[in-house]
Amino acid sequence: MAESSYGPGVRVGNWNEDVYLEEMQLSISEDGYVHHGDSVMLVNPDHPETEADVFLRGDLSLCLAPDEIGAHLSDTPEVPCGLSAAPTDIPVGRNTFIILSAEPAATGDVLRFGQNFRLGITRGCEDLMLYLSSDHRTLLKSSKRSWLQEVYLTDDVSYLNCWQAAFPDPQLRLEHEGFPIPANSKILINHCHTNRGLAAHRHLFLRTYFGKEVEVAAHTHLDVHRAEKPRNHWVLVTGSPRKHSSTMLDVHPLPARATPALGPAACPGAQ
């Protein structure tokens, strides 16, 4: 077993280390927004889990979680492939996603609240694109720990891959429809087909080949005020222009990065 640069205490064999754990380059946002074609990390910001005594702290990134036996046998993950959330702020092959248009839009166009998009991952192999997907829960198909709606990666392009971003404050959500999505700020990511929110379950642990990680599912968790709980909060993290910082997490810690309110420059017609 070889020591990995993915994080302290994580050990991996020689299989696929370059594919899954090779450091990746995130897109740098010059205007403060995210765009179609950008490479980003999806991060659930650190927060205490009030409904459990034991939970995983830190910023958790959405990660590809291949079947351990299958990963030993092939460089290509079996599809559908699982997902998890892991405590890392380093962009690598298994946690770097590409924002893809699900509607007529050119690469480089600003992504907007309420606009359908896909999230694809290549693991550094440009000839294979897997898409973040979900579908209604059934008796035979659900998430491993919570038995809620499963999220997975597949190579089939369909409406099951389509997602939308929403403003986290429900009182301001409607007026933000059509406005550009700011990079490195909290948003909600909702599945178009089922209207369920992408969620990280910090209290439901998974044992993967990469270490202790937690479950990711599609479920909208609401508080007493009918607002989404931090489990449903995500940040599209972009690259840092600074020489010694790989992501904007190194520049602006997430607790200080609230989603900005509407400004005069952020209008639906802005490019």
UniProtKB/TrEMBL annotation:
Gene that this sequence comes from: CFAP161
Any one GO BP annotation for this protein: cilium assembly
Source lineage: Eukaryota, Metazoa, Chordata, Craniata, Vertebrata
CC annotations in GO: motile cilium
Keyword Glycoprotein: no
InterPro entries membership: CF161 (IPR055325)
Organism of this sequence: Phyllostomus discolor
Keywords: Cell projection, Cilium, Flagellum
PANTHER family recorded: CILIA- AND FLAGELLA-ASSOCIATED PROTEIN 161
Protein name as catalogued: Cilia- and flagella-associated protein 161 isoform X2
Entry superkingdom: Eukaryota
Pfam families assigned: CFAP161
